């Protein structure tokens, strides 16, 4: 079986660090994207979240435009746009415009979760639950608006018709695996936080995949938490910010990203909580040598075509350093045999 270089990318939530303004956060997002471009990353995706003071990527398409304007070659996109939050017509107009301004660089990753709490989802779109259940139909409407054939329709997204914007289906369970396979679209699994159904979802996607005009064979992206530093000890110290973020999710006390501290016994005990331990199953933390071994094993397990790395680190400098080391790891790996469709 032939081997090939596994692509590597970044998923960003534009997390706000303690003591940083939103403007500083957005500038750091752009700075990281520019570094990622120089380091050979394939794409830089921004996730849609709402009603969270520590997440800056709520106006996702606007932020995508800002990052695309400040970069030249790296693909910029959504990981993802939560389609039930929006009218497919509006998303088509937004991403048709983006792809016209930045041709061959814009990705449209699509999910069905709200990316927020129930009350906020209701405020965003009163018929959210109906739209979530109708996700396949909403996807078809979006495809229609991008089609040249829609030029004869009464309702048109004129800035999107015939514009090339690749779609990606995002998932954290098995439901979207069936849909991505049926539509013949690339599949991105959120294994950086939803670890339980990873193997099952990938198996479903690969077995049920139907070739399409967009894709002839399955294409799998998997999310992983990555924190790489010059030593295992430094990476462990940096990871304390991530642990506190996770504690905030479970306790309902979401805070800005906190500065790292020494690893304490209390934090180590938190990491052994069954729910948190499962959630962070695919978190690779350590020196370059340590993380390289972990990543190689993960690729051998999943046969993923692309890793999309999530790195929650307090400081911009340390975050960029982590992504530099991760890029070195991915370039040094010889290539892992991919699954046969």
From TrEMBL:
UniProt cross-references to InterPro entries, sorted A to Z: Bact_Lucif_Oxidored (IPR050766), CmoO-like (IPR019949), Luciferase-like_dom (IPR011251), Luciferase-like_sf (IPR036661)
Domain Luciferase-like, chain residue ranges per copy: 11-297
NCBIfam families per record: oxido_grp_1 (TIGR03558)
Family indicated by similarity: To bacterial alkanal monooxygenase alpha and beta chains.
Name the record gives this protein: LLM class flavin-dependent oxidoreductase
Organism taxonomic ancestry: Bacteria, Pseudomonadati, Bacteroidota, Flavobacteriia, Flavobacteriales
